[in-house]
Design goal:
single chain; mainly beta; Jelly Rolls; eight-stranded antiparallel sheet; 3 helices; elongated; Allantoicase; UAH_cupin; ureidoglycolate hydrolase activity; Ureidoglycolate_lyase_dom_sf
Length: 520
Amino acid sequence: MEFQQIPLEQFNESLSLADRTLKHRLLEDGLSKCSDEFFAEAINLLQVEPSVSMKGQFGPNGDTTLSNDWCIIQLGTPGHLIGFDIDTSHFSWYETKAPAGSVEVLYGTPDESPRADDKRWSEVLPKTSLGPNSRHLFGIPRTDVINFVKLKIYPDGGVARFRVYGEVAPVHALEATPFDLAHVFAGGRVVYVSDQHFGVGSNLILPGRGKDMGDGWETKRSRSKGHKDWVIIKLGAPGYLEQVEIDTAHFKGNFPESCEIEATYSETDLDVQAHGGEGLTKLGPHRQHYFQLENVENTVFTHVKMTIYPDGGAGYSTLPEAPAPVLEQGEPEIATPPSPSTSSPSSMVTTIPVLPLTPEAFASFGQVIQGKFHKLSLLQSSYPSGSSATAGISVYRCQPLTEVASDGTTPLKVLERHPYTNQAFIPMGKGGAEGLKETSERYLVVVAQNGADDKPDLKTLRAFWASTAQGVVYGTAIWHQPMTVLDKPLDLACVETQIGDGSAADCEIVELAEVYRLRL
């Protein structure tokens, strides 16, 4: 069997194609079985943290080392393997380190548990000597798609950590269903990072939310004026971008003050010159942020760049409007993408995604009322003198939306604005413990800026769903959809200033001539 032993100093040149964090997480979905766990659990092989010396410490069965003859690991997602790291750190000649090891692989169904004597096992790393207290890096020819790995040690002994390096076999949505193009299981890869002082950039595209700050991307602090850090992600396939999620979970005092998202189409992973993007956008602490992207219509992208100002930590993923090529799981090559000028499949209808309501995404339209804040929003009124406008509170009972198509979209037909006052809506239903917690009662918030023609600027259309733990304040003269609720009937208190005579001074209404739909 052809393989090569790689010096540790050549790690980046030989194995860095494999995501440096995924090599830990890839195996996290669980151990299938092992031959012996007498001294310690085999799951220790997959811990993210480097091993530590346990010399002189003993468990119920003696020295807390890992002692086993073979161990079968199911990978977190299928992929093509290119190498391994068999780490015997803290196992010296005088302790129970494994004298030799080998690796076998197979591809099976996700729910099976192959036996050690299964005839499908194929050896990719033959029996090879292992030294004490050191990392052993091995490069192998790129395998076919596999999802099970068997580590064997001869005759027994201890291994501190076992890492598997490779390339994920992309898993993409079928048809035109939006999916996360940056996700590592979709084939996304971090290709450039400006700084990784506290946490690696590749953490950004892992499954789920980070368990702590170390599970995200965090850069070192800077005192330089105008400092920024950035990360470039190659998408799993060329596609049409639509929205982005930036998660600052656990980053409370050291979250980025703001960020910028840019994207480009490139045939290579060279430092791409990005264009388009959301522009400089404020971020908040310890929360998920959802933004609809701008300047991305009818354009195929392959790379996304996130820049954070001035530094800090974050998590990130992105969704396309529609994928360009569509791949089944395990397909080895990405299909030839369409040119950047290719039109979106739904060019006749403009579909607006409905995203969770967050203060940052809504900031240019008004305020979100959630949590406990003093004077979060003040009443505003600029009615002409003598108009007899007064402030008051009204209560509206709204019935659930019924006009929903089979594809989960609903038409947007009307927008209104209040040219001389802001307007607050406060739900009077049951709210969740947090503003973003989805409850059984939700309502829609659809907004747009005013255009140069004094009509809604439809390029600025944004749509959100809000829980009953959130109120919303529409800024003065901000165009918005009349109050629309989902799921169940809902009462909302409305605080506004008005004359009350039904004139356009209180409310202007515009019917939309173009076809716009909201994707719920």
